[in-house]
From TrEMBL:
Subunit structure: Homotetramer.
Protein name: dCTP pyrophosphatase 1
Gene Ontology biological-process annotations: dCTP catabolic process; DNA protection
Keyword ATP-binding: no
Catalytic activity: dCTP + H2O = dCMP + diphosphate + H(+)
Role noted for this protein: Hydrolyzes deoxynucleoside triphosphates (dNTPs) to the corresponding nucleoside monophosphates. Has a strong preference for dCTP and its analogs including 5-iodo-dCTP and 5-methyl-dCTP for which it may even have a higher efficiency. May protect DNA or RNA against the incorporation of these genotoxic nucleotide analogs through their catabolism.
An MF annotation (GO) of this entry: metal ion binding
UniProt main location, coarse: cytoplasm
Length: 182
């Protein structure tokens, strides 16, 4: 079974942040990182599932930086500029929503966009990578300033989602949980 080492089966224990000890690219590992933050194809970001049967390739992220790495890097960026006085929760929320608007702008008037963005230029992809990064950076700092431990909160929320939407009950349906009768 070929994996990138961070494939999770869906069990909460397997979805904990990956350890970042002992290596050397600034985030604590030697994982190759390209301009838009994606790992190379050769770094084995395709998964063979079900005992070696080839599946359609599934895109996966690089294991680093972790959410805690991003929190720390942004905290350093903010401290170095004496910007904490501007980065209160409400301002961070507004900044994040503004960046979501910039993501939306890249999609507007295009009609439906296929997975993998096959018709987008490299420059459009890089723009999208930058705007999505802005959203994430502000989201992580907002969580920090609100004292929400985001990686653990995500694990708890996903557990709740699984309870609300049992796969056996909702398979193939996008209905809201309130629409199920039993
Ligand atoms: N007060 C600020 C200003 C910027 N940033 C950081 C976080 C974001 O990742 C990025 C946002 O920078 P801009 O506000 O310049 O927004 P863009 O990079 O999206 O530029 P533009 O609006 O020209 O597309 O910089 C920050 O932390 N705090």
């Amino acid at each position: 079974m070929a994996t990138n080492g961070n494939k999770a089966s869906g069990h909460p224990d397997e979805m904990l942040p990956v350890s970042s000890s002992g290596r050397s690219n600034g985030f604590g590992t030697s994982q190759p990182v390209l301009e838009n933050g994606a790992a190379t194809e050769s770094s084995s970001h395709s998964n063979m599932l079900n005992g070696g049967t080839a599946q359609p390739e599934r895109f996966t992220f690089s294991p680093q930086p972790t959410i805690e790495d991003i929190r720390r890097l942004q905290a350093e960026f903010t401290d170095e500029r004496d910007w904490n006085k501007f980065h209160q929760p409400r301002n961070l929320l507004l900044a994040m929503v503004g960046e979501v608007g910039e993501v939306a702008e890249l999609f507007q008037w295009r009609g439906e966009v296929a997975e993998g963005l096959p018709d987008w230029s490299e420059s459009e992809r890089e723009q999208l990578a930058q705007e999505l990064s802005d959203v994430l950076i502000y989201l992580v700092e907002l969580a920090e300033k609100c004292r929400v431990d985001l990686p653990q909160a995500v694990i708890r929320k996903m557990a709740l989602n699984r309870l609300k939407y049992p796969a056996s009950k909702v398979h193939g349906s996008a209905k809201k949980y309130t629409e199920y009768k039993d």
